[in-house]
Design a protein that fits this description.
The protein has 183 residues and is α+β, with helices and mostly antiparallel strands. The protein is 22% helix and 23% strand. A hairpin with a 5-residue loop joins strand 5 and strand 6.
């Protein structure tokens, strides 16, 4: 009897938790279902592609041809989106998904041939890297959040100015012997 009652309590708790998570705001931290990429409306950028953790995905102008140039230090800030064990999945409106092999042998999701990344400074539902510029290994990158149709979304001027200031801060932190500890 106790086992049946405990099971009923666990079932009721699961139903209550599921009912609480039914909102549709931009601050949700997980993607419904098991898709690699989904679409979500986010404040300031509109309808964009997100990964399974709810973070917006980006591509850089420098990798538009599908050739990977974001390696080593670059991937400390820009995390390649992994397809997981199977092939990537997304709503049909998200663009053509694919997988590319990275120089280190790992696999990365692409949309319309462009490699996808998340930005380490973002959190689920919050976009901070749109229009961001940085330099790694002799390459100058310009990053764009990917819109719901699988194409780059524009960056407002205010975001570009903030991105440039943050970029300078990140460069100072990355330099050996750096004393810049602003947060």
């Amino acid at each position: 009897m106790k086992r049946l009652m405990a099971s009923s309590v666990a079932l009721a708790a699961a139903v209550a938790l599921a009912a609480c998570g039914g909102g549709s705001g931009g601050s949700t931290t997980s993607v419904a279902g098991s898709q690699t990429i989904d679409v979500r409306q986010l404040p300031g950028v509109g309808s964009v592609l997100i990964d399974q953790s709810g973070k917006a995905v980006y591509s850089s102008d420098q990798e538009a041809t599908g050739r990977i140039v974001c390696n080593s230090a670059c991937t400390a800030f820009w995390k390649p989106v992994s397809p997981g064990a199977g092939g990537p999945t997304a709503p049909s409106s998200a663009g053509r998904l694919g997988v590319i092999k990275r120089p280190d042998g790992s696999r990365q999701v692409t949309v319309n041939g462009k490699p996808l990344y998340t930005f380490s400074e973002d959190s689920p539902g919050k976009v901070t890297g749109n229009g961001f510029t940085d330099d790694f290994s002799g390459h100058h990158f310009i990053w764009h959040v990917i819109g719901s149709k699988g194409t780059a979304a524009g960056a407002p001027a205010a975001v570009r100015a903030t991105a440039t200031a943050t970029d300078e801060h990140m460069r100072r932190q990355a330099q050996p012997g750096s004393t810049d500890h602003r947060g």
